[in-house]
Write a structure and sequence with these properties.
The protein contains eight helices and seven strands; from the N terminus they run αββββαβααααββαα. The protein is an alpha+beta fold. The protein has a single domain, classed as L-fuculose-1-phosphate Aldolase (3-Layer(aba) Sandwich), CATH 3.40.225.
Length: about 230
């Protein structure tokens, strides 16, 4: 079932290791088949060393296991809430990459300070509200998805495909597993650059015209970056 999607999700999980975004088993990638509304996700706590496509788990949007012999990631309910909230999302990545997680633990959004950020993320990378005791104690992982959804009120999630969960870590997404991983790579680099930039000049602000130019030359109606 969904064999091609399993292969792409497995490869995307392995790519997190290749890019240095995960330690031990601290990360997961999922992707959704929008025709069936079935989600393929990494199994919980399984080492990346011997991970295979057949290890991936298929669940429905209610979290029921449809195919697979292993337990799905413990973050599955968060992924499902993102898919339900943001209909254009095709894949989700969660890591604990060092710099992005530091910003999340500090409960600070990552401001748009330069063209590297603006090439991929139109807005600042939002940080969610802190979760309440009730949200933590009941349906914690699903409520993580709820606070992510709430952080994007008034923001197009496809224009800024990343979020920091307060005290926790980053999630990114894209139209495919490959794109979602790429956005995680970029997010970590942007987090590093923002940390250094604000150390050098704590009062710096970005030029709004540069944001418009760099974002739209890649993603706008008249985009011209790259090849046709």
């Amino acid at each position: 079932m969904l064999e091609d999607l399993k292969k792409s999700v497995c490869q995307a999980n392995l790519d997190l290791v290749r890019h240095g975004l995960v330690v031990l088993t601290w990360g997961n990638v999922s992707a959704i088949d929008r025709q069936t509304n079935l989600v393929v996700i990494k199994p919980s706590g399984v080492s990346y060393d011997n991970m295979k496509a057949e290890d991936m788990v298929v669940v429905d949007l209610d979290g029921n296991v449809i195919d697979g012999n292993l337990r799905p990631s413990s973050d599955t309910p968060t992924h499902l809430e993102i898919y339900k909230a943001f209909k254009e999302v095709g894949a989700v990545v969660h890591t604990h990459s060092t710099c992005a997680t530091a910003w999340a633990q500090a409960c600070r959004e990552i401001p748009n300070l330069g063209t590297t950020h603006a090439d991929t993320f139109y807005h600042a990378i939002p940080c969610t509200a802190e979760m309440t005791k009730a949200q933590i104690e009941e349906a914690y992982e699903a409520n993580t998805g709820v606070v992510i959804r709430e952080a994007f009120e008034g923001i197009n999630p496809m224009h800024t495909p990343a979020v920091l969960v307060a005290h926790h870590g980053p999630f990114t997404w894209g139209k495919s597993a490959k794109e979602a991983v790429q956005n995680s790579v970029i997010l970590e680099e942007v987090a590093k650059m923002a940390t250094m930039t604000l150390t050098l000049n704590p009062s710096i602000e970005m030029n709004g015209d540069l944001v418009e130019k760099h974002y739209n030359r890649k993603h706008g109606a008249n985009a011209y970056y790259g090849q046709k």
